[in-house]
Amino acid sequence: MKFKTTAKAIREQGGRVVSAGYCDLQNLLTFEKPVAYTCGVYGWNFDVYIVDGLTICTGYRGMVGRTANNICEFEARARKINDEMMWKAPYEERKAAMRELLAEFIKQA
């Protein structure tokens, strides 16, 4: 279950923080669960994922961190993995392939 947080708390936590727009990394983060979210007067702002020491913020507004590198490239590769393996490979195999791609994304982020 994710908890409510603030953009200020994410900035103050330190570490590497990158951001991406709403649904920009939906395929790449298929097997990951957000750990937190933020909201404001207009409702939900963004979700926060923490993967291998990298904090990834995805949403509509107020995201902290710089924009991640090569979002389109990695999302296209993740979509290809999902499309090719969806009905042919077991869940754990698809998850491992996506996790490998996510590790590569983290190195370049």
Would you kindly provide a brief summary of this structure?
It contains 3 helices and 6 strands.
What does this protein structure show overall?
The chain is an alpha/beta fold and 109 residues long. It contains three helices and six strands, in the order E-H-E-E-E-E-E-H-H. It has helices spanning 7-12, 71-85, 91-108, and strands spanning 3-4, 16-21, 36-40, 43-51, 54-59, 66-67. It has a six-stranded mixed β-sheet with strand order 1-3-4-5-2-6. Strand 4 and strand 5 form a beta hairpin. The two termini are 26 Å apart. The model has no long low-confidence stretch (mean pLDDT 95).
Structural class by helix and strand composition: alpha/beta
**Quick one: biggest sheet?**
6 strands, mixed
Strand adjacency order, main sheet: 1-3-4-5-2-6
**Share in β-strands:** 25-35%
Write the layout of secondary structure elements.
Elements: E1 3-4, H1 7-12, E2 16-21, E3 36-40, E4 43-51, E5 54-59, E6 66-67, H2 71-85, H3 91-108
Parallel strand pairs: 1-3, 2-5, 2-6
Antiparallel strand pairs: 3-4, 4-5
Task: Please describe the structure with a list of short key phrases separated by commas or semicolons.
single chain; 109 residues; alpha/beta; six-stranded mixed sheet; 6 strands
